[in-house]
Amino acid sequence: MKGTYLGEFEELVLLAVGILFGDAYGLAIIDELEKKTGRNIMISSVHKTLVRLEEKGYLKSHMGGGTQQRGGRDKRLYTLTQGGKKALQEAKELRNAMWKEIPKVVWETVKL
Amino acid sequence: MKGGTHPKPAPPKWATRFLRWFCSDHLAEAVLGDLEELYERRVEKLGKRSADLLFVANVIQFLQPFAFRKRNYRSTLNQRDMFQNYFKIAWRTMSRQKMYAGITIGGFALGLATCLVIFLFIRQELSYDQQYADGDRIFRLYNEYKGPKGDRWVNIPPPVAGILRTDFPEVEKAGRLMPGSLGFGTKGLFRREDAVENNFEEGFGYADPDLLEILEIPMVYGTTSTALDKPNTIVLSKRKADQYFPNEDPRGKSIILNDDKSRLFTIGGVMKDMPANTHFQYDFLITLTGQEFWSGEQSSWCCWNYNVYVKLRSGANPLALEQKMTVLRDTHFIKYLEEQGDQSAADVKKNHLFRLQPVGDIYLKSNGIYDDMRHGDIRYIWLFGGVATFILLLACINFINLSTAKSANRAKEVGLRKTAGSVRGYLIAQFLTESVFYSLVSFAIALFMVWATLPFFNTLAGKSLTIPWLSWWFFPSLVVAMLFIGVVAGLYPSFYLSAFKPIDVLKGIVSRGSKSSGLRSAMVVFQFTTSIILIIGTLVIYRQMNYLLTTKTGFDKEQVVILYGTHTLNNQQLTFRDELLGLADVQHVSISSYLPVDGGSREGYGFWRKGREKADLPITSQKWRIDVDYISTMKMRIVEGRDFNRELASDSQAAVVNQAFVKEFGLKKPVGEQITNGPQTFTIIGVVEDFNFESMKEKIRPLSLVIEGGGNSVMTVRVKSKDMQATLGSLTKAWNKFMPHQPFRYGFLDESYARMYDDVQRMGRIFAGFATLAIIVACLGLFALSAFMVEQRSKEISIRLVLGATTQGIFRLLTQNFVKLVFVSIVIATPLAWYLMRTWLADYTYKIPITWDVFVLAGAMSIFIALSTVSYQSIRAALANPAKNLRSE
């Protein structure tokens, strides 16, 4: 369903915004994601995702916290909205529910 | 920057600016911040170069729809409808004011048509000799003589090309052209070996086999490397081959030149016809292989008759070669002079240089380099381009003037549109659309005009221009030009018109067109200044032309028939002459091809006074081989001494010189003096009045006339005839009696003389054309302006009339302002024109003084033209019935 569906990358970005609470801006999110996933993340795809998530209403943003390191420019700081939190929650619950349905047997064969 | 003494490395500015340009504002700041932070990290880790590259890569990554600036609301409106409305309004305005629209468009079209023609002309001129694949390596040799007797010319002694080929490694090929000054000239008789009738042909020249390769002459039959490599071979152009050998490969066929059956020429190949835009125009090239014009000619440095073309190896520096050629001069030429005991060796060593001229420059940039070719002149290109631009500018001014003057009519529309929510930008767009619309219509008309008048221009300018309808660039560039001119002309009016305040307009405060009348006057002055300068230019050029054609001839050029090709009579020449003398109308007959006009034979030598050969520098003088009857046939005036006398055997060693010769040698008593050119010595028996035998641009040079064999290919016949046709008929009959198989070729001396000044005449006519066009455009504008003014003041005029003003009074009232403007124009134009024409005349040695009457005449003409333009409207207003205009109030 469009609107509530969360892609994998979107979910990761949302989670990173949550983790970086209060200081979640583009580059920090990339750093966080690269650290956690070990993947190489394109800066444009992060911004693209942020724009989309904001359009979906999962994130809101404001400008602020400029530093000398960025040519004095402000950061666009993102925070989770209620909707965003709820979407994360739902995603997590969906997973948990599905996890539970996997028969034990599966795990045992894995252990072999 | 915080405390940094040296600036922090920054990412490339243009990338930053680019991102800001395409990226939505919402995102740009944050993204840039992130990118710069990243950049700083990278600079430390990877260095500035890589960081820059990565930064640019990142910016490019953002070229995605999500980041793009969203279009603002304006452009989401339906543009098409708006433009449709603009066009509709433009159309209605045009059709409501047919006269004004007609004048604007007509003027525009005239200006544009002029510009188009000039553009085609310039394009043609600039396209000369651009066809060579290795054009940047092909050069023509020329001589430069520095110092007070400075001169530049292209004739080179025979051995030079060979020396260049063998001794200079940077020269890939060197080839000579002998443009017909030896041999039989550029014109001659031609026939197939198996034909009887001779045909007269032009465009002969002698060429080295290498020349075909150097000039990359495309061949139809044969190859450039082999076509001329055997003695007595000749190549023909395609059109001549088609004429004499239709539908066959003529290679190996024999032809006879000048009825000389003892020497057959074999066709070695056929060249494609020379394109019109090359300086090298020949239909017949005879090989120089094995050719010697007299014994020892090919190895001697005595006589300079060849043009030399070289092709350098790629990478060779022409300037360095010019330097190296001084060695060639010293080891060969100077040595030759010293062997001859010539005193000029030291002077030559100091002043003479062999130089190289790029082949692409030959046509346009040979000013001051003397050769026999027809040239364009880069200065005329500038001049014509400038004049065309000015005429177009005049047309643009008409548009600006009329649309601002008529602004009152549009003011209400502007006010209403603004009230209805239009912003200024829309109105500017509207008026620009309108002017582009005008420009579109004008372009269409202009194209038609060009199409219709191009043949006329072609005869005027001696060109063969065509409209390149089918070239891919033609229509696109027309469209671009149309938009450009539309916008340029519309810019000021659109800003002016769109600035009206709706409240003022709707209240009726906007004064009716009186605003910016100062600017309008300035523009009228500009128009008339341009026109007057062109009028003065035309007058001066015409006067100079007349002066050249009527003065300093020194001989009587009227009623002289020139018969060409008479050397083919061989031993019958004198009999034929006597036959002619027996005709009723014939007064004198002379046999000499050294005509005092363009196309005559020429021979230059260094001359000394007898006995001073080892002491003095030689003075260059022409030596013309004439016969006893020459001076009387030409009716040259003897100012001192006597003419040649048939009875005196000693006259074969005598010379008649011109006044320039006497002056140059500083002879006090010329008659009896002995002069020598080395091998020959002459005694001066007479002095003729100076006459011009070269272009009038140059000073008359020294000349000596001697009785000597040779140069018999032309007869000149002085006739006294009331009916030239009948005279020519009897001449033809006499010729056909002697030479039944040869065409009778004749010309007139005055025509040949006039041909020397072709370019001046052409200039004069083209300039007159320009001046007329400029005046027409300016007058169209003035006419419309006066109409507008009359229209505006119609109530005032009516009231004046009712109160008893006379017709003359009204007329004066309406015209005096315009006349004032024209006076101002005269004042401005006079010094400008004087300066320009003085510069133009500086080229001529014999020139008219620029007298005041030219300016008076031009001024009077312009006032007369302006007055008659304005008076139509003024008189109509002054004679109108005042009741008509006042009735409605």
Automatic annotation (TrEMBL), chain A:
Domain (Transcription regulator PadR N-terminal) ranges: 22-90
Record InterPro entries: Metal_resp_DNA-bind_regulator, Tscrpt_reg_PadR_N, WH-like_DNA-bd_sf, WH_DNA-bd_sf
Domain of life: Bacteria
Any matching Pfam family: PadR
Protein name, entry field: Transcriptional regulator PadR-like family protein
Lineage per the UniProt record: Bacteria, Pseudomonadati, Bacteroidota, Cytophagia, Cytophagales
Automatic annotation (TrEMBL), chain B:
GO molecular function: transmembrane transporter activity
Organism: Chryseolinea serpens
Any one GO CC term of the record: plasma membrane
Residue ranges of the TM segments: 99-122, 380-400, 436-457, 469-492, 522-542, 766-785, 821-837, 849-867
Record-annotated MacB-like periplasmic core domain positions: 102-326, 616-721
Keyword line: Cell membrane, Membrane, Transmembrane, Transmembrane helix
Name this protein carries in UniProt: Putative ABC transport system permease protein
Record's subcellular location: Cell membrane
Membrane topology classification: Multi-pass membrane protein
InterPro entries reported for this sequence: ABC3_permease_C, MacB_PCD, Macrolide_Exporter_MacB, Permease_put_prefix
Lineage per the UniProt record: Bacteria, Pseudomonadati, Bacteroidota, Cytophagia, Cytophagales
Location of the ABC3 transporter permease C-terminal domain: 387-499, 770-879
